[in-house]
Description:
537 residues; 19 helices; Rossmann fold
Amino acid sequence: MHGDVDAGRKLYMYGLNSRGDPVVATTQGDVEFSGAQFSCVSCHRPSGFGSSEGGYYVPPITGTKIFNPAEADRVERFKEMFQESQPSSFWAQVREPRLRPAYDEKALSRVLREGINPNGERLNLIMPRYDISDVDMANLIAFLRTLSAEIDPGVEKHSIHFATVLTEYADKASSSAVLKTISSFFTWINKDTEGDLEHPNFSPGYRSTFLDAYRRWVLHVWELKGAPESWPRQLEAYYSDQPVFAVVSGLVQGPWDRIGDFCDEQRLPCLFPNTDLPRLRDIDHQYSVYFSGGLGLEARAIATHLSRLKHPPKVLTQIWHDDPYGAIPAQAFITAIKALAPDTIIENIPYRDIVELNTTLKLLHGKSDRDALVLWPGQNIKEAISSIVQNVPTAAVITLPFSALQPAKNITSGNVIKRVVFSHPYELPTRYHPRKFRVRAWMHSRRLQVTHPRLQYQTYYALTLLQYGLSHLLADFHRDYLIELIEHEAENRLNPGTHPSLALGPGQRLASKGAYIVQLDPNSKGGFKALTEWIVP
């Protein structure tokens, strides 16, 4: 029976049969479930290369693995050893030979329905037994034959291609700092690779076994010009000229939405771009992975803070600049505050230029019934700060985004300082991260000037995760597998101190989930102090 690959993919990913109904299955002998509660992808992952779950080893079921005999492969076993801390029972499973003949349609049907493999061995009861029709079985088999069956684009015999995205209107000094950091890292990686290839047999790590995994890293800079509406066409041209295996870091001025759409369309990992406007709709399992929710996260953190005050605002005014950096967080704030403080009366006022902002603030100055003022100045931050100083609002609390913190340090009026607070989605300057000093030493040793510490450290973090992912892919160059390895490693001692913590779960795309609320304080390190603990909206 010939199966339908698309229908098989829906079964694998979402647990839906050919009729669109959830598939029914049993685990642990008598625990019934259906659909996506225990779909194939939950344990075997989108790549099909498996994982480790609760002390259990989940083997790969890609087309090239499952339909061929399982043999004792030192390279594959090497990868399995790089798992998080596991009980001794897990290591016993990893060291088992697990030899078996190739699966065919009959054997695969039996293992899914009865839990018995081609050797006649009964699998652990954690493996579900599925109530699945012959039609759905044929569909699933057709899909599995395609799963990670071919190496993804961007990989050549001796090289692997990557891109980084810069936009025309991003700050030139910031873009240069990001690009120099990436270039230095690529140079370092390639020199290390050349050294290993020149002496393949002189290695306690048995590098000669893994020679097929070595590739020279090639960097392509994709500079996007003009309005965001034109970016997809430019991205398509860059990718058509030279496909890349992944996009890493970069600096984007403007919403990531169109770039994110392109990454999803191409199934192209886009790893930790430096952007304040990530694409947050339907974010789980996207191909873009971010440090945080950007301004949208800041908006939700501010709404959470206001709702937790001893006297939450009864009436507040939100003023926002009519550009994406004002409009997007303003909408996120409205959604959050309505859910957290439904009785709060909200007045929304957009403005187009500094003249309109001055006029609005002057009008508000005489309204003493406003408990809070939430201001999103867009990209006109310095002008907005000056406007606040000249037209001091009477609101008890005035909130601003993180981008306004540095310009606001010129405020000297104690009356204003006491009432202005900022979202702060990064680590506080008073906290200690040992890795930050190692990263700075790495940069200094390569004569790389640290002119933009946070941007450069974030870029370095993205690059080290890419390095980790590739070293564990070995020669299995599949993009989904790369993302899965990065999800696994994100929290493991690589944080250079830019955020309190960075971690990803399966399918998660925001590594940092919260923010502080801070207040100006000339006597504190960095010129500000935290008013709250880490807020996770």
